[in-house]
């Protein structure tokens, strides 16, 4: 979905840096170049990133304009269902939330969000959205989360949250184990979470940015995973009272994916196997990006909100 807004948001001059403005207005050729599928694909893929505190080697998506980052590290065993994740994003006077989706969609798949408790701690919860209007409620299930304190910190302006997500990879959640490359999603808000002390805190729209990115999961695997996972807290976080069971029958997505099967890569065509793209041969993931070519629905209403979907282009 968010890919489709890529072109639209490039038409919003207020969102452009001088450099990209120049590119856009310097001629049709430049515009065409920007919007070619390979150009799109190259810009939103994960790249290697090593956490300085722990040495954990992630494949990380980073949006340059939003400052949002999400890194993922996986066990060498392709059948394993856990991963280590790291969310890094700016806060505005301590306010805001950031999160990831196991697919490029919001509705259906397993989501996770994190925010500051205002006292130096991070609050997080698993969510599942059933529409794009309401705060996605907190959910529980066979997945659980253990913070990695050594690489978790927050202050008024930034939040870093590193965690072991156990049992989080399941096709029923939107992304199963053993996938070489998959589209995942991200979202970032600068607005305060209501009832921020509880993991059931109420989120407002991700006004800073959101979208999908291609995660090179094959490259995210490491034989060192178990050592890194051992850094995590012993006890998983508990959900707040009232959290509902994750609805497996909803994880297939929003229904606006044009017949998507609900798999993580349902709208990626052949691109799901294009893991090599992160090393620079980006054209191979272009298959997925071409699905965004003619799409313009919703751009007018959301164009101002998803600007960061193209933020990683400079
Ligand atoms: C009150 C909370 C939320 C509201 C009101 C909301 C609203 C929306 C809306 C309206 C869109 C569609 C925009 C468009 O296509 O033009 C969207 C997309 C998206 N949202 Fe949210 N959202 C919320 C929370 C979340 C959370 C918690 C996550 C992830 C942790 C998330 C991830 C995404 C992603 C990845 C997309 C792009 C793919 C898609 O359209 O499904 N959202 N959201």
The CATH superfamily label reads: Cellobiose dehydrogenase, cytochrome domain
Report the bound ligands by name, code or SMILES.
protoporphyrin IX containing FE
The sequence of SSEs as H and E is: HHHHEEEEEEEEEEEEEEHEHH
Whole-number average pLDDT? 77
Number-wise, the strands total: 15
Examine the coordinates and then state which fold CATH places here, giving the name of the CATH topology: Immunoglobulin-like
Structural class: alpha+beta
Q: Note the overall shape.
A: globular
Supply the number of helical segments. Answer: 7
Gap between N and C termini, in Å?
22 Å
CATH architecture: Sandwich
Instruction: Give the C-level CATH assignment.
Output: Mainly Beta
Low-confidence stretches: 1-42, 253-314
Q: What percentage of amino acids are in beta strands?
A: 25-35%
**Into how many domains do the coordinates divide?**
1
Please give the radius of gyration in angstroms: 18 Å
Percent of residues in helices comes to 10-25%
Q: Largest sheet, described in full?
A: 8 strands, mixed
Organism: Podospora appendiculata
Protein name: Cellobiose dehydrogenase-like cytochrome domain-containing protein
InterPro entries: Cellobiose_DH-like_cyt, GMC_Oxidoreductase_CD
């Amino acid at each position: 979905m968010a890919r489709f807004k890529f072109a639209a948001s490039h038409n919003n001059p207020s969102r452009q840096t001088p450099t990209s403005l120049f590119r856009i207005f310097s001629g049709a050729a430049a515009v065409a170049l920007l919007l070619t599928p390979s150009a799109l694909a190259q810009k939103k893929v994960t790249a290697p990133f090593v956490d300085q505190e722990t040495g954990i080697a992630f494949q990380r998506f980073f949006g340059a304009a939003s400052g949002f980052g999400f890194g993922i590290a996986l066990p060498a065993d392709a059948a394993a269902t856990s991963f280590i994740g790291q969310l890094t994003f700016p806060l505005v006077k301590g306010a805001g939330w950031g999160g990831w989706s196991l697919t490029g969609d919001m509705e259906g798949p397993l989501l996770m969000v994190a925010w500051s408790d205002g006292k130096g701690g991070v609050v997080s919860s698993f969510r599942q959205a059933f529409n794009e209007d309401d705060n996605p409620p907190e959910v529980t299930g066979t997945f659980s989360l253990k913070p990695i304190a050594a690489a978790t910190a927050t202050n008024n302006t930034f939040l870093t949250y590193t965690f072991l997500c156990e049992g989080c990879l399941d096709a029923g959640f939107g992304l199963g184990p053993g996938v070489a490359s998959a589209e995942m999603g991200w979202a970032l808000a600068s607005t305060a979470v209501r009832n921020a002390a509880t993991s059931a805190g109420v989120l407002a729209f991700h006004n800073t940015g959101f979208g999908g990115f291609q995660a090179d999961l094959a490259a995210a695997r490491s034989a060192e995973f178990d050592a890194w996972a051992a850094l995590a807290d012993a006890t998983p976080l508990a959900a707040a009272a009232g959290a509902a069971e994750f609805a497996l029958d909803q994880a297939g997505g929003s229904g606006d994916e044009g017949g998507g099967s609900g798999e993580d890569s349902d709208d990626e065509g052949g691109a799901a196997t294009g893991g090599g793209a992160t090393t620079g041969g980006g054209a191979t993931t272009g298959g997925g990006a071409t699905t965004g070519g003619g799409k313009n629905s919703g751009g007018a209403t959301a164009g101002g909100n998803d600007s960061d979907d193209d933020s990683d282009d400079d």
